[in-house]
Design brief:
Structural class of chain A: alpha+beta
Order of helices and strands of chain A: HHHEEEEEEEEEEEEH
Number of strands of chain A: 12
Structural class of chain B: mainly alpha
Helix content of chain B: over 70%
Distance between the termini of chain B: 9 Å
Mean pLDDT of chain A: 77
Number of helices of chain B: 6
Radius of gyration of chain A: 22 Å
Number of domains of chain A: 2
Largest sheet of chain B: none
Number of domains of chain B: 1
Number of strands of chain B: 0
Largest sheet of chain A: 6 strands, antiparallel, barrel
Oligomer: heterodimer
Distance between the termini of chain A: 47 Å
Strand content of chain B: under 5%
Shape of chain B: globular
Low-confidence stretches of chain A: 266-282
CATH topology of the largest domain in chain A: Thrombin, subunit H
Helix content of chain A: 25-40%
């Protein structure tokens, strides 16, 4: 017990990574199972509703409607994937596309878990975004998973800039309350700064952790802080943190070069023609 | 409960714990699935099984979160020790008693972990928020622990590994 509490950082990270990697396939399987069950329930419920609405409908019509519904779902998925692909091609950084496989189960932090880790080039402290904007940064990275500390977590702080007036501030998570959107506040805006509701908030690029100009959200309310020296603004995030399905990790050339130099694990797929990692943009 | 059974429940509990997000009310407490396995061992099995369960469950729980390794094990040991203290004074196989003992122990585990995390500056939590979260854990445990105990006991009886209070 004492040994566990006093493990060196690197060893502790390795142990945690091994346990997390062991559980993540089960977690992903369970998630897939839940999704399948939900689809079946939806389908069955749809059939029941049809029967109530019109008992005379033939089985063929029900079948065709089911097919149409499935085609619409596929079209929606197709559109979403096209959007993701287009976004990845427009973004200057190398982006690693990931699926969100879990949310924080402890409640102490606001995090989500991604299905890719160090084996795919994900490194701690990288910006994570969706097509709408920044959502957080990578924290604990194991070989096959990475935890993302969301912007709404009180320990997540990001240097931001108001796009219209160019004012700098510090965005800080305020946690999430049930039934409300995750709250983020921008502090240290000068008292004399021109801040208006609706102003777009983007990353400033200061500190080097987050690339410059990533959309964060829009100002919803402005007020003077308790000291009366600065303004503080509540912002509405650009990305919906409650409905994350896919996310991108903004990797650097160095991150990906390190992965290419390392021996490739058996379960990491390389593109035959380009030799790029799966999910990585050439 | 053999060690194999314990490992099985820890694996199942760990997977469920990882898949089920924290409750969004009452300070966002986690569903006490792994804690349920620890309490089951503390209330029904020999001490060595309880200690092993507490350490392993804590290891899994810490691996799934940003907490430093060993913190959750301390919290589980504290909750389990409380359960061991209480075990002679109540009927472990009655839903009502397991419910309130589970609630008490879950609150103790949450309180211990909150103090440890706060002492290291890993979470910003006021005393009031901490108490609210402990109450949330107690509510979840009161509802969940009797169900978990029923499942575990049922499986043990089917497999023939059940023995009345080791």
């Amino acid at each position: 017990m004492l040994a566990m509490l006093n493990l060196p950082d690197a060893a502790s990270r390795r142990v945690k990574g091994a346990v997390r990697d062991g559980i993540s396939p089960l977690q992903a399987g369970l998630r897939g199972g839940v999704r399948e069950t939900r689809d079946v329930v939806r389908y069955v419920r749809g059939l029941g509703d049809l029967a109530l609405e019109n008992r005379a409908l033939s089985e063929e019509i029900v079948y065709l409607r089911g097919e149409t519904r499935m085609a619409q779902e596929l079209a929606r998925d197709n559109q979403m994937l096209r959007d993701l692909l287009g976004f990845a091609q427009r973004f200057p950084n190398k982006l690693i596309s990931c699926e969100v496989i879990g949310r924080d189960s402890t409640g102490w932090w606001q995090t989500v878990r991604l299905d890719k880790g160090a084996a795919a080039g994900v490194v701690e402290g990288r910006a994570v975004l969706t097509t709408d904007g920044l959502i957080g940064r990578t924290m604990a990275v194991s070989a096959r998973t990475a935890d993302v500390l969301l912007l709404s977590d009180p320990s997540c702080k990001v240097s931001v800039r108001l796009k219209r007036s160019g004012e700098f501030g510090l965005a800080e998570g305020q946690g999430a309350q049930p039934g409300q959107a995750p709250a983020v506040r921008v502090d240290y805006l000068l008292k004399t700064a021109d801040v208006q509701p609706g102003d777009e908030v983007v990353t400033s690029g200061l500190g080097g952790l987050f690339p410059k100009g990533l959309p964060v959200g829009r100002v919803a309310e402005v007020a003077l802080d308790a000291s009366g020296l600065y303004q503080t603004a509540r912002i509405e995030l650009a990305a919906d943190l409650g409905k994350l399905e896919y996310a991108f990790v903004a990797a650097t050339e160095k991150d990906l070069a390190a992965v290419r130099a390392a021996p490739v694990p058996a379960d990491v797929v390389l593109d035959d023609e380009t030799d790029y990692l799966e999910g990585e943009e050439p | 409960m053999t060690l194999l059974m314990l490992l099985f429940w820890l694996l199942v509990g760990g997977t469920l714990q990882a898949a089920v997000p924290a409750w969004r009310h009452m300070g966002q407490p986690a569903f006490p699935i792994l804690l349920g396995v620890v309490l089951y061992a503390a209330l029904n099995k020999k001490a060595r099984y309880f200690v092993a369960a507490a350490i392993l469950a804590g290891l899994v729980e810490d691996a799934l979160s940003l907490a430093p390794l060993g913190y959750s094990s301390c919290a589980h040991l504290a909750a389990g020790a409380l359960a061991v203290l209480l075990r002679k004074d109540f009927f472990a196989d009655r839903a009502f008693t397991t419910s309130w003992v589970g609630a008490l122990c879950a609150a103790a585990a949450t309180g211990t972990l909150a103090l440890l995390l706060r002492s290291k500056g890993l979470v910003a939590l006021s005393g009031r928020e901490m108490l609210w979260r402990m109450a949330g854990s107690a509510v979840l445990a009161a509802a969940l622990i009797p169900l978990l105990f029923g499942l575990m006991r049922g499986l043990e009886r089917r497999l023939g590994t059940w023995e009345d209070r080791a």
